[in-house]
Amino acid sequence: MGETDDTQDTIQKALAGNQRAFNTLLDTFWSGVYGFQLKRTENENDAEDITIQTFAKAFDKLHTYNSSHEFMTWLITISRNIHIDLIRKRKRNLETGENQEAVVKVLDDAPSAEDRLINEQNLAQLLQHIKKLKPRYQEMINLRYFKELSYAEIANELHEPINNVKVKLLRARKLLAEIIKDGK
């Protein structure tokens, strides 16, 4: 891209805090970085997010830029690293099951017959019923209904896989519903 003295001059102005210089750098190099990421990600949203992060990081670290390298090359290096970090993070999320969050949200939002029964109880009665559960089920009910945590948040709090949390919560609800029915 054979950068000009103008680019170096604009960088110096940006380093001095000139807001217009930052805008000029963004306008000049945006399409190059975005195009690079669009080819890599084949996803417009990811390409745009990474490009935004690239410029945010570049502007934050502008004082570390070495003018013996082309500015575009420096931006592409930052951009490539952000993309690699994103891929690693997504891979980690897949391995730890955090990608189930979307499915979990749907499950979270659909009240079951047990949920309705639990919600119809007055608080004092409900607390008496909950005390009849084993401690680990009491904890699940407390986290879900009183602290209103999602499955993912409960899994995080208890350091347990999300599938374990789902099963325990299903079991706790079923047991609590049986106690409520017997108590009526």
From TrEMBL:
Q: Does the keyword Transcription apply?
A: yes
Q: Which Gene3D superfamilies match?
A: 1.10.1740.10, Winged helix-like DNA-binding domain superfamily/Winged helix DNA-binding domain
CDD domains (alphabetical)? Sigma70_r4
All copies of the RNA polymerase sigma-70 region domain together span: 33-92
**What does the UniProt keyword field contain?**
Sigma factor, Transcription, Transcription regulation
Pfam families, A to Z: Sigma70_r2, Sigma70_r4_2
Keyword flag Transcription: yes
What are the residue boundaries of the RNA polymerase sigma factor 70 region 4 type domain, all occurrences included? 125-176
Q: Which domain of life is it from?
A: Bacteria
Q: Which SUPFAM superfamilies match?
A: Sigma2 domain of RNA polymerase sigma factors, Sigma3 and sigma4 domains of RNA polymerase sigma factors
UniProt similarity note:
Belongs to the sigma-70 factor family. ECF subfamily.
Protein name according to UniProt:
Sigma-70 family RNA polymerase sigma factor
Q: Which organism is it from?
A: Pricia mediterranea
